[in-house]
Here is the input.
Amino acid sequence: MATQMKPRLRAYVFLLVPVSIGIMLPSIFISWIGVNFLGFHQFSPIEIVSELYGQKESQSGFDIRNLLLSYNDTFAYAVASLSLYFASLIGMIISAGWGKHRSRIALAAGIFAITAATLWIYSVESLKENFARQAGITGGIIGEEFRGHESTLADILIRLGIGQYFVAAGGIVAVFNYFVEKKLVRSRVPAV
Here is the structure.
């Protein structure tokens, strides 16, 4: 039974990298963060990067750049996450056309993708925590209307999008590709 599965697996293993790209690519245009302040504003990586580097003004009426720049650690994690995301996407595209080291490049790109998604989640949680801390200080000064509910306020105003989950899924498929190809290569070499 196992010997019958290997020829089928060999025939389709080349599809794992394009599937990974197909999962990761749409996340360029899918929301990674939503801000519920004077309306609900969603931001994709393309919008975030273009606003961070001053290429365009905010179309939504909310400046994500100022929000991320307000807290240094959040900004650093967000920039690292987006950089790793774009590097992983480029790595996946390169590995799709590469022959000899395809699975290794896909493995590196998959690890970058998983790390990018994890860093993004951490950066948004850091943003919420910093915002809640500032709301607690401000609420205490203004009349204690936020006292004890700062994290709830942060959860209402700042939300994770779904784009980073697509990136993580694409990264997992790329890592899986590496192990499948490695197993197929081992099965071709006769044991001594």
